[in-house]
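Weekly modeling sync, notes
Attendees: AB, CL, MP (scribe)

Item 1: holo prediction request
CL wants a bound-state model with calcium ion before deciding which constructs to order. AB pointed out that an apo prediction alone won't tell us much about the pocket. Agreed to run with the ligand included and paste results into these notes for async review.

Input as submitted:
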Amino acid sequence: NQILVSDVNELNQAIKDAKPGDKIVLKNGNWKDAELLINAKGTPEDPIIITAQEKGKVFLTGLSNLRISGEYVEVSGLVFKDGYTPTSEVISFREKKGVYANHCRLTECVIDNFNNPERENTELWVALYGKNNRVDHCYFTGKRSNGVTFAIRMVDEACRNNNHQIDHNYFGYRQNLGSNGGETMRLGTSHYSLSTCGANVEANYFEYCDGEHEIISNKSCGNTFKNNTFFKCRGTLTFRHGHDNTAEGNFFIGNGKDHTGGIRIINERNKAINNYFYNLKGYRFRGALVIMNGIYNSPINRYNQVIGGVFSNNTFVNCDHVQLCAGSDSERTAPPIDSKIENNVFYHDSKDNIFTVYDDISGISFSNNYINTGVKPLLKDGFTVVDMKLVENESGFLFPVSDQIKNAGCSLSSPVATKENTGVTWYPIVNEELTFDNGKVIKIEPGLNSLFDAVESSEPGDIIILAKGEYVNSKVLSIKHPLTIKSEKEKEASILSEKNNMFQIENGGALKLIGVKISGSESPDMAGNSIISTSKYSMNRNYKLIVENCDIEDLTVNHSFDFLRIYKSTFADSIVFRNCNFLNVSGNIASLDKETDDLGIYNAEYVVYENCTFKNIGGVILNLYRGGTDESTFGPILKFVNNKVFNSGKNKRNKIGCSLYLHGVQWAKIDSCNFIDSAPIKLNLSKDEPIIKFSNINIYPKVSIISNSNEFSLINLTHKKQ
Amino acid sequence: NQILVSDVNELNQAIKDAKPGDKIVLKNGNWKDAELLINAKGTPEDPIIITAQEKGKVFLTGLSNLRISGEYVEVSGLVFKDGYTPTSEVISFREKKGVYANHCRLTECVIDNFNNPERENTELWVALYGKNNRVDHCYFTGKRSNGVTFAIRMVDEACRNNNHQIDHNYFGYRQNLGSNGGETMRLGTSHYSLSTCGANVEANYFEYCDGEHEIISNKSCGNTFKNNTFFKCRGTLTFRHGHDNTAEGNFFIGNGKDHTGGIRIINERNKAINNYFYNLKGYRFRGALVIMNGIYNSPINRYNQVIGGVFSNNTFVNCDHVQLCAGSDSERTAPPIDSKIENNVFYHDSKDNIFTVYDDISGISFSNNYINTGVKPLLKDGFTVVDMKLVENESGFLFPVSDQIKNAGCSLSSPVATKENTGVTWYPIVNEELTFDNGKVIKIEPGLNSLFDAVESSEPGDIIILAKGEYVNSKVLSIKHPLTIKSEKEKEASILSEKNNMFQIENGGALKLIGVKISGSESPDMAGNSIISTSKYSMNRNYKLIVENCDIEDLTVNHSFDFLRIYKSTFADSIVFRNCNFLNVSGNIASLDKETDDLGIYNAEYVVYENCTFKNIGGVILNLYRGGTDESTFGPILKFVNNKVFNSGKNKRNKIGCSLYLHGVQWAKIDSCNFIDSAPIKLNLSKDEPIIKFSNINIYPKVSIISNSNEFSLINLTHKKQ
Ligand SMILES: [Ca+2]
Ligand SMILES: [Ca+2]
């Protein structure tokens, strides 16, 4: 029996009447604010099928979601986009608490950028409950708000030992969340992590899953991760909680991208066998292989000791870091025991030292591992240095080869998971990156609001070129997409504003300013003006801001006039100030400190200040803040080099009382900088091994760098008058 | 010549072609995103007229504004609503910098709730530039975002000595802004305050203009304020800067409302003559008459000494405060000199002490003033105590009458400005207050989302009655208008949520919860949940929250679970918790501290905690915060009585480390409260004479109230174990 339904009421009626073998077909079109509840019972032979009239032509938009419960129900062909779920889950394998789906299947469905506009609101895209369900050949891309993309929920017995099958799905782009909660997949939670989940995650393709440092957070027992591909994903497959899990036949392809990692191991009898790791650059918890120290008698939500771990027949090619006993500290004192690292091949063509050992590794037995010439073996025993060559295999991957390697390294038989053999065939794959300068060139002349008009009519990637003269704007310049604004000849065009803010970067926006002069002289006489701000609302797309070769001056009409003003629930991929002169500013240059709940959330990943001069700045040059003790993120990452700071940071309204303040920053290079007659530099370092390096710093008059700890390096501090 | 135009292009063409005497008629309808520029030259005899096809049927909506420049242009009949200006001014008497209107008139126009959604964005509704312009018979109501409603701008010579006429306008409801910038009218700024403005503000009606403590901020010389009525307005007509201004024949009708004031005087030769003051309750700078201390050699933006002030023939009926040398402190040390207070009548039927003197009043001569029997005269000389009777005059105002009063008190000849003789006749006047319980009653039964569905379909003022049972919601309950939710029988209905927040008060919303149980037991296992939140976005309408007879418990699934979570750029008229029990909360009850820029902005006006019990609260019971030194506001105002606090405030994430924190609160009564095994009480008092009274406080174990100053009173502090 096949029934075509065209709205939710018809669907509900059809489901009520449905008999095993029935096929309910959703009519092509836009189903807006549609909450679908499929509660039906098919049989193993005759499932009830819910599908689209044509696959990819039924769109769930607005406040929509899907609940599947009952048995032997199969849903396919739906696309969720242009909206978000009104509940906490987009696709849920339950009707409500205690009423689950079993033996049901979700196949060939798409969720595309279906996000709550509130970045911090937590939603799952797929929540698996019940048992024996399958999710396959789905495409999930563009998860941008808080919450796991795909979760197996183990809330009660009816959801454990579940035998779920998750295969041939394409997990696409997930931007850096800048916070915990950006996992692409999670199996269980710490609460139930000693129960068996028993899921099989096989032959899925993960691409640019950069949400946080756990691509997959395994928090239960007895799961298998097999033949999946992780392509340029920041983070690791993490065996965070639970025992007896296996990662086998997976490909981790970093291609040299920052923070790409492999497998991180905690707990008992977890195995990493026959995996391939290529060009992974992650360090600390994001190494290619990370075996952690545990805690004796660990609470369930902390770190169990690694016992009985097996790490064998893996191949590592140009991976920078293998970390043993990682996380060793006064709490994590239990090193791995009864574990084996054997039959692995480690190849690196440019780094001689790839192993880091943080504690006692006598509990790990090493045997028959191979290293190429030039790389330092971890131990004498168990490692053989041999000459290897990289040879491309039939799938195009480089494998180290040598006659001397015996029974070691991975040998992969199944086809590798790719873009092509996962997900759906009928839905376009879009590059989600914000890109500058790929649009058209727009030349404009000076005049009241001529720049405003050009910005309003611009399209993504456009370049607005300003002829010589003054550009006064009586309206806020609203930046809704990547846009470059450039002076035709360097510093001949000046931009002014009569509003309390000149540029506002909206959700989806990115701004590049090149060679312009910016003045605050026409800004209104009120406290709290700014030149550039983010949206005041949550932005669930990360933005970029690049300011190069610009002169910025006279931000002084009233107090607290900031150059960059950001708001809570916004996140910058990158903020770059290069070759700029900032002169006379009553407020801050950039105070990136709006996440003060100290939940590990922060406001910018990469921050670059390079070759800039700052003179008479009342507030901070930079306040870069990440509070709390969360360990799931990578940034903030700061490069602050070749800058000169004069007479800055000393306004009484500058509450933190310093010119440069770094709080919880994870990586910073501060080199060749001059601080003259300015408020001090202050550090509040976190405990998660930040890398903070100062070199060639001149501070006059002499004053110390204020810090809560001495875990930073400082080379060549001088106090010359200049 | 009369030309009908139907869009902006046609209008522009018509204006280009316009000749003196032409009449350009805007077609009836909705002009969306219309920026009108009227740059034309009429003559005194033949002005160019821009008007509506029918008055009140031409609506400027969306991002719209109006600029008038040129000469002898008259604009009438337009209505601005449902939008806001894209620039900083809605109606501007200039084209751009330096290009002004002269001899132009705006008449019978309306601006109705035409506000930027961003509460803090600063916009003027009417900005007068140039000279000899008139604004009359307009209706301005519902200004809700930052910025003066009506301003005379004196930016250059062409705008001074301007002879502007502002008459017969109706200035309607302006809600409490909770910040500086809420003036209804401003004439000049401190910069040019020693220049002559020369405007005449006559026969206007001001109603509920409650934006801040200056209803009118006069900041220039030579202005007249004549025969205006101020009806139930919080604040005063303030002669803030500038000399030689006169307030004459005005009516200040407080009708017993909080913070209603009269005239506040600073600077030289300012006069208050023949005014009538009725039932004004304001204190401090909001007295019926406030004559301030100045600063010797004051900077232009501070306080000039009062010299040559004349305060005569005024009548005060039941006004609580007349303040002399107000603001006297270590900076304001210059008392009024060469001034007269004469021929005034002061009547009060219930308060014996209406005068407060803060410094030397020998520079004021007092003569022929009358006081009724029972009120204490300020001095022996210059005041006569007589028996008076209140008699209603023909306009319905009560005047004190006695045969013994000679040549004193006000005598008003012109008709009083009223709703009826000001503004326009063709536009409805709407009460803007949020009102509970004037809608229909909706009875509902327990069930998943039954409450959600009822809230969604509710209308303003509705009352939702819950039958006994559990109300689980998988979606956020979004409160978009005043709504009451009430258990049919007290505490038999429980409300639970599967979302990280249960109730969200949106812009325009107000919530009253009566007799329900609220539990966090179904809330998601994540940090930072809440039961009630404001919008995360700016709210430009003040909200109300009332929680009575409720039990709230088990907000503990994870850390930082708050009862009330507010966001920046929101403002509560009132937050009331009465007869409630709060048990086991991992976060805060209410942390009203989101305006940390310390610009004098705060988050709630009236806060009441009465007869409540708090047990095992991890965070603060209340954090009430107003930062900075701004003096333009009234609140926060706190009543905290008969509460019991047990084992609270001690969670390590409670950064401020106390159970009750008051920062910059302006008025507080804390009476009959018990703090047992809890974090301390902490005060950060501002310097603007806050009134903070503690009485009958028991704290066990013994610990002091921590305070930055001893400017609070404390009666009967005990340390009993109970
Ligand atoms: Ca995580
Ligand atoms: Ca003010």
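Recorded for review: The interface with chain A takes residues 86-88, 96-97, 118, 120-122, 181, 189, 191, 448, 472, 474-476, 498-500, 522, 524-528, 536-538, 560, 568-569, 597-599, 653, 655 of chain B (CB under 8 Å).
Action items: CL to compare against the apo run; MP to circulate these notes.
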